[in-house]
Amino acid sequence: QLQASGGGLVQPGGSLRLSCAASGSISRFNGMGWYRQARGNQREMVARIFSGSGSTNYADSVKGRFTMSRDNAKNAVYLQMNSLKPEDTDVYYCYAWTEDEVSIRPYWGQGTLVTVSS
Fold it and tell me: Is 92 exposed, middle or buried (0-12, 13-18, 19+ CB in 10 A)?
């Protein structure tokens, strides 16, 4: 189970930090990340972190502004969002995945709403 939190209302240029807490060790996942999708909009991968290497990927739209990190001791990952823009307004979903030779299994948390508005 994944529990996302940290969304809210922020002014343009402001910051928020999203948290995603897992029930159990996050090291069992091959990776974790964040998607965003509001009703009627296309789902977009925002950021992800690979468990083995700790390397991260970001959507071009958030590079340089968002930073994803993890805390294995707390079984949690975080998304630090800086210089927020109105177009960042969306519902953000935490996810994780496991994979083997033949399949990838996703795990989804509930969304947390981020609203960037003056």
Answer: buried
Two tokens at 95?
């996810």
Residue 89 and residue 106: Cα distance in Å, rounded? 24
- Along the 118 residues of the chain, how does pLDDT read in single tens digits? 899 999 999 999 999 999 999 998 888 999 999 999 876 677 889 999 999 888 999 999 999 999 999 999 999 999 999 999 999 999 999 999 999 989 999 999 989 999 999 9
Contact 15, 80 (CB under 8 A): yes
Cα 73 to Cα 53, 67, 70: the distances in Å are 17, 19, 9
Partners of 98 in the beta sheet?
A: 105
